[in-house]
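pinging the channel bc i need a second pair of eyes. not urgent but kinda urgent?? the chain im working w is below, pasted from the shared doc
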Amino acid sequence: PGRAGTARFLAQHNAWGFVATRAARGKIQGMPYGNCLLLSDGPVNNSTGIPFFYVTPKDNTVTDLLKNPMASLTLPEVDGNFCRKNVIDPEDPRCARLTLTGQMVTVPPEEVEFAKQAMFSRHPVVRKWPRSYEWFFMKMNIEHIWLQSWYGEVSPIAVEE
């Protein structure tokens, strides 16, 4: 229940999110850059609230993160009952959006098996992605949480919640 419950729901039920970084290359170096990435916060029966990603260094977003790990992740209420029942576009301000900010880090060896279970259980197709792309796991160490759940209203939520 409440804001923290909505945030946990969005973290658990989103299969993808929008990751914003600071570009580290070319003519857009230093400018904001964003990309949609698949994510999982754990296997369906073991949701953690920590977003895990299966990424390749060939992706511009990952190149940015390897130079500057600070990022924001926005999760829209695409699967929420309110928006679907009321036939409301997921980008309508009445549909909740969760934004997490923090550092994106490579998953340490002791957590790789959990990250595999998290990603592969929710996104089985990623097992078939070309191995030549040097895939690896990242996760976000969340530092700040904001929930927008109505017109313009943005509420901070303590990470501990």
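so The chain is about 20% helix and 35% strand. and The longest strand covers residues 136-150. — does that match what u expected or am i reading it wrong
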